[in-house]
Task: inverse folding
């Protein structure tokens, strides 16, 4: 059981950005996609969540071909993305935003919703303190926590994140990554897109380096850490 991507290509309006990418993320794994600016990281993860259509190749999740199914149906299968830039409902409260995360799942009993909300607040106590606050007035880090909180309301099996450290103060970044590590220990598979090499290799067990839309290196985090290829690709040299 895992995420299996084979020979995947995608892009925009006739321009191919991702070229024949093949990768595998084991169930329960914590994996990272690294790469410099414009390497295609966001495009790849958006294709895995269904926001960008695949032009060829295959995405399989736990044995099910999800290549051409709509994003909300992928969510129902457990494939959930926390988007870059967070896309919160800024004039809604923290609690209202969190509840939106359960919408793609259809009807959920009130007790079940309350239970999920408790789990979210256990993971991010800061959000509990600010539950009635309008989300637009949260700090960058708190907004990122809220985006993740919303994402986990649908009980993902695979949680994908696009640069969760972006625009977040260093101390808060650590607590966000600790929360991801906790989710991972609870069995959620994590696929993380990051530009921050040191940070992501510290938390992820393995990863891939993307260069101009192709996987150029893959391995365990310590292999990636010591690979000269990683640094070259990463620095875009
Ligand atoms: N919506 C879009 N329409 C057309 N081209 C796009 C679109 N989004 C991204 N691109 C192009 O795709 C290429 C890869 O961009 P992408 O955002 O996937 O890279 P990235 O690795 O996530 O970069 P960054 O580190 O800056 O977030 C770039 O050349 C970019 O201009
Ligand atoms: Mg990006």
Result:
């Amino acid at each position: 059981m895992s995420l299996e991507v084979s020979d995947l290509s995608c892009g925009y309006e006739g321009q191919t950005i991702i070229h024949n990418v093949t990768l595998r993320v084991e169930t329960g794994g914590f994996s990272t996609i690294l790469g410099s600016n414009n390497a295609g990281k966001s495009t790849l993860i958006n294709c895995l969540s269904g926001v960008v259509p695949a032009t060829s190749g295959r995405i399989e999740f736990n044995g099910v071909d999800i290549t051409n199914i709509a994003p909300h149906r992928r969510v129902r299968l457990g494939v959930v993305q926390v988007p870059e830039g967070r896309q919160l409902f800024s004039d809604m409260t923290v609690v209202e935003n969190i509840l939106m995360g359960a919408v793609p799942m259809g009807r959920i009993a009130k007790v079940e919703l309350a239970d999920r909300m408790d789990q979210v607040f256990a993971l991010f106590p800061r959000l509990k303190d600010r539950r009635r606050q309008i989300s637009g007035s949260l700090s960058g880090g708190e907004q990122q926590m809220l985006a993740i909180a919303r994402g986990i309301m649908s009980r993902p099996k695979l949680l994908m994140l696009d640069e969760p450290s972006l625009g977040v103060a260093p101390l808060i970044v650590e607590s966000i990554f600790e929360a991801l590590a906790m989710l991972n220990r609870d069995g959620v598979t994590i696929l993380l897109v990051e530009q921050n090499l040191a940070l992501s290799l510290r938390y992820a067990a393995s990863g891939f380096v993307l260069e101009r839309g192709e996987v150029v290196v893959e391995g365990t985090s310590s292999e990636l850490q010591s690979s000269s290829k990683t640094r070259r690709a990463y620095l875009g040299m």
Summary: The domain at 2-87+156-235 is CATH 3.40.50.300 (Rossmann fold). The pocket of magnesium ion (ligand 2) is lined by residues 41-42, 84, 162 (CB under 6 Å).
